[in-house]
Each structure stands twice: as structure tokens, then as C-alpha cells.
Amino acid sequence: MAPFAHVIGWGMAVPERVMTNDDLAKIVDTNDEWIVSRSGIHSRHIAAENESTAILATRAAAQALAMTTVEPADLDLIIVSTSSPEHIFPATACLVQDALGAARAGAFDLSAACTGFIFAVNMAAQAIRTGSIRTALVIGAETLSRLVNWEDRSTCVLFGDGAGAFVMQASDRPGGVLSCVMRSDGSGASLLSIPAGGSRMPTTAETVQRKLHTIQMNGREVFRFATRVMASATKEAAVKAGLRLEDIELVVPHQANLRIIETAARALKLPMDRFVVNIANYGNTSTASIPIAICEATADGRIRPGDHLIMVGFGAGLTWGALALQWVSPERRPTPARRGRRRFLTFLAHVRSFFRRFWWRIEGLLWGAEPRGRT
Ligand code: UT7
Domains in the chain: how many in total? Predict the structure, then answer.
């Protein structure tokens, strides 16, 4: 029988710096009343200069791994879902792989905006269920504060930075990922985008001056689209998993706007206490919002082993999706000795990375700019 794909560890990381609505009102023409009533956001975390997407992703991943007996070297796959990667390439996932010392893992980024974490968890689950891999690390990480136009009040008040991570593993115990709905509609691509900086509109002085490297959004249209798809995707994922909505203990929606979540709850005829909502403290952290909400809900005891959850999200692309899963308790917690060993292995991974970087240089000096093997 195909193995089940379980979430056995979870972790989150947010920058220390908190920016309140009042702080924002000092930068743009806005106020706390407008932001709270239109979005439900009170504050958000903003990355410090020395923080970036890979750094937040690595912190969340280390926390998730620390819950488990999985060593970085046991990881077969690392997927980082992000819309604010460190670079166009290399993938942020490769930087996380190096920082963790996950020497055997294939690593790549997945770009599906705020829906990305759902897609990434499903990709990892499918690879586990086919038997092609056993253990995966899935991360949603963003530093969107680097990509917003801080002069545009209609967008800069909405977004925040953060990361969330799942360790996923094959298991014979029933549960884990039960179903997934993945959808997209590129005809709505222009409703939410960063137009410049890619191959379509390479960077020029003009693109920089016109702020085309920052988030551009038609908020009203995205709002309408979101309210259409949230309820339908949730229902579809439940049906595919063979569940009724009454069987779902908690819905974990993408945290983009409290009003969108309330509209979805009304459409599903579910009370708001069946939804995990933490947008007030984080704003919209895009693909990181769902795993961060799950980490908080488990810490609060709202998610318990055996619970059926639906994660549901939408975002740029346009993309949307929902994933049903049955939460399980981690099989084994690491012992203090094991945690000590992990710290030592992480240290060794950094030493290894240092020497490999050094070796790339030596190799370059030995072989020059010519590719190896050419005479
Ligand atoms: O992860 C997915 C990403 N995006 C989303 O999910 C966003 C979906 N959309 C939304 O959440 C909402 O559309 C917003 C929160 C962005 C905006 O709420 P809204 O109720 O749709 O407001 P609006 O765009 O219709 O703007 C209403 C008014 C406008 O003034 P006028 O034209 O009516 O005079 C805006 O200029 O509010 C004004 N406004 C603001 N006022 C104070 C826009 N932004 C602000 C602001 N502070 N920050």
C-alpha cells in the first residue's frame, strides 16, 4: 500500500521588528481605523537589514526539524515556496539546503504566490506517496517588505515578513495529506504582480524610477476573486478527501484580509471559531501565512492529533487551492543527546560549506576560467 504523507514537525520564524498601523501612518496617508476596518491588520513584522528570505526560511526549518528525529542529512527534498526569493537564481531552497547541511537533498523554489505553500505541501506529499522520496522539508518564506512600494498606501499596509516550515515523512499510519485542489487562471495575471525585473521587462533606470519592481495590485478585483474561490476550493478538497464540512475541525485560510475569511465562513455556513485567524499580528505574509497560523494554532492547543484540517489559499497568478489533511502527533521527540548531536552536525555542515566554497576558489585558480577537461 502507498505510504501516507505526514507532517511530523513544524516551525515558524518572524523578524523581531514590529511595525504598527500607527507607525505606518507616519510614512503614508493612512490611519489605524482604516487599516483595521478594511483588513483586520493591527501590526506586521518587518525584516531587519541583515535578515532575508533564506534566513527566515532556515530559522523556521531548524525549528521544525528540532521537533523531530530527522537529521538534515535525512532530507530527500527541500521546497521553498516564495515570491520574494533571495535572487532570481540560484533558488533560495539551495541556500537553505547549504545552511542546514542537507547534503542529500534536491532543492528548488516554487512560485505560486500566496497559494504556494499548499502546492508545495501537495508536491512533497505526492513524491512521498509514490515512494520516490521518504522525507521532505517544505517552507513558505517571504520578505515582501523588500518588494512593496512604501509610498503606495493601498498595498504597503497589507504585507508582512515571515516563514513557516513543515517536515513531512512517509508513514504506515493512516492520516496526513488526504486531498488537494490546485487551480490557476493566468488571465488574471495583471491583477497582482511585480511587472519588472524579469525577462519581459528587464531592469532599466526607467523601471526603477517608475517603481515597477514593487507590488502592483488591483485590490478590489483580487478581493472579489478571493471571495469566489475560498469557499468552493474548501468544499472541493473536503469532498475529494471523503469528508463532510462538519468533519473539519479547523479551516486554516491564507491570511490576506479578515473580511475575505469572514465571507468564506458565511459561504460555507461555518462559524468563525472553526477558522484560524492571526492576521491582526502578522498582516499578509503571503505563502508563509498558512504555516505560521498552523504553528500558532498547535501551540495554543487548537490543533490536536486526529483533527481534520483544510488549508485554503489564493494569490497572484492567479492561483488558488485547498488541501485537506489529518493532523498526527510526531512519532518520536528528539532526546537531549540527539539535540546536542544535531547542533554538532549543523556546526560540521557550516565547516563543510566553508571548505567547499574555498575549494571552488582553488579549483578556479587551478583550472582558470576554461571549463574543466578542455585542453
Ligand atoms: O494575498 C493576496 C493579496 N491581496 C489581497 O488579498 C488583497 C485583496 N483586497 C483587499 O484586501 C482590499 O481590496 C483592500 C484591503 C486592499 C482595500 O479595501 P477596499 O475596501 O477594497 O478599499 P478600496 O480599494 O475600495 O479603497 C477605498 C478607499 C479609496 O478611496 P476613494 O477612492 O474611495 O476615495 C482608497 O484610496 O480607501 C482609500 N485607501 C486608503 N485609505 C486609507 C486605500 N488604501 C488606504 C489606506 N488608508 N491604507
Answer: 2
Nearest CA to ligand 1 atom 21: 220
Active site residue 156: no
Under a CB-based contact definition with an 8 Å cutoff, are residues 4 and 176 in contact? yes
CATH of the domain at 206: 3.40.47.10
Q: Give the residue from 120, 41, 147 showing the smallest Cα distance to 291.
A: 120
Residues with C-beta less than 6 Å from any ligand 1 atom = 30, 34-35, 38-39, 114, 153-154, 157, 192, 217, 219-220, 222-223, 226, 256-257, 284, 286, 315
Q: What is the pTM of this model?
A: 0.94
pLDDT digits (tens, 9 = 90+) for 92-144: 999 999 999 999 999 999 999 999 999 999 999 999 999 999 999 999 999 99
183: its cell numbers: 487551480
Which residue of the set 156, 284, 295, 308 is catalytic? 284
Please count the other Cβ atoms lying within 10 Å of the Cβ belonging to residue 62: 18
Per the structure, the complete domain to which residue 131 belongs is given by: 4-326
Verify that 176 and 62 share a domain, yes or no: yes
Known catalytic residue at 42: no
- 180 assigned to active site: no
- Index of the ligand 1 atom closest to the CA of residue 30: 47
**Cα separation of the two ends of the chain:** 53
pLDDT in tens, 344-364: 888 888 888 888 888 888 888
